Amino acid sequence: MTPTLRGSGNPQGPGKNKCVIVLSTKSSGSSAIQRLISSLAGARHVHHTRHRESETLYWTKAASALGRPQIKMLDSEVPIPAGRARRELVSFLRKNTRDFHIPSDPRDMIFLGWEKLCESHRPVFLEKSPHHLVQWSALELMLECEERLDSTEFLYIGLIRNPMDVLYSAWSRWRTFPEEAQFEWELAYRNLQRLRERLDHRLVVVRYEDMVSDIDALDPVIRFVGATRDQVPADYLHSRSISKWKDDRDYGFQLAPSVHDMARDFGYTNAELDNPENTGWETFRSRTRRAYRIRQFLLTPIRVLRRVRTSLTQNGGFLA
After folding, report:
1. Is the bond into 233 cis (omega within 30 degrees of 0)?
2. Cα-trace Rg, the chain
3. Contact, 155 vs 19, CB < 8 A?
4. DSSP element (H, E) containing 153
5. CA–centroid distance for 182 within its chain
6. CA 314 to CA 320: how far, in whole Å?
7. Counting Cβ atoms within 10 Å, is residue 314 exposed (0-12), middle (13-18) or buried (19+)?
8. 128 forms bridges with which residues in the sheet?
9. What is the pLDDT of residues 308-318, one digit of tens each?
10. Taking Cα atoms as reference points, which of 45, 47, 42 lies closest to residue 225?
């Protein structure tokens, strides 16, 4: 299988909105792509969201609001309860669109709301939420929305990264057990394989490792947003975060066979995926996560005080 599959990057039709949706798991490089695309041709992401890195969780919230099935994600609030998801979508659309009257029908709100988001963030609306690729119901809603909106051109970026790097990043940052997270990674990229069967040039599948070594991997995306290669600095992306897990002697995680096979399907080699057995890994893993959770518990009062102080500052000394 070819590691990087490129769409044609068809140009924008006259007067049409455009949106680029980045589909990946966490720690796969979606923030780097977001920063790059945002620097080109006026591409824009939302500024009003309660989530980090300009993430919206729009389509997982849409799936919740419509009662579509979703899996419980690790270390995540997803799936969000239906009533809360709808309230958050209403608030989100009011803050990030211009003159949009919220329809009473939830499907109209979701699809026409997306159209209004694309219109309000012209020339190109950029969205990335790592939760979407794990939830097939969210991906189906994107496709339904695309079929409904003649006013908007869609381009999807399927971003994949070596699962050993992805899982090590989650372990390093949040002490998420890779033995559990690996199957969420596998599900996400099984969904990407299914999605590729439904889309043609509108899906650009790119490996993180190819992207950071040669910007050519993103040529279809650059063309779609109406930019040119000379607008991208030669050293904009770097490969310093590749294979950092190999330098950690305590990290003894090994991929399950099915996850290993999935990664091989996307062009990764045994040398890039295999980790020597470490008999002390299980004990080290449990002890380290226990210490992390104790630390997070002790830091909770400090975070609460910071939020209160921020709220006081924003409201002129009075809590909202």
Report:
1. no
2. 21
3. yes
4. strand 152-160
5. 16
6. 9
7. exposed
8. 22
9. 776 667 556 54
10. 42
User: Where are the chain's structural domains?
Assistant: 17-161+174-233, 282-320
Provide DSSP, 76-117: S-PSPPHHHHHHHHHHHHHHHSSSPPPPSSHHHHHHHHHHHH
Topology, domain 17-161+174-233: Rossmann fold (3.40.50)
Residue keyed to tokens 């969000």: 80
DSSP labels, 161-205 = --HHHHHHHHHHHH---HHHHHHHHHHHHHHHHHHHHH-STTEEE
Euclidean distance between CA atoms 138 and 70, whole angstroms: 8
Determine the residue type at 274. Answer: D
The answer to pTM > 0.85 is yes
Residue whose pair of structure tokens reads 């039709």 in the numeric block: 13
144-202 tens-digit pLDDT? 999 999 999 999 999 999 999 999 999 999 899 999 999 999 999 999 999 999 998 89
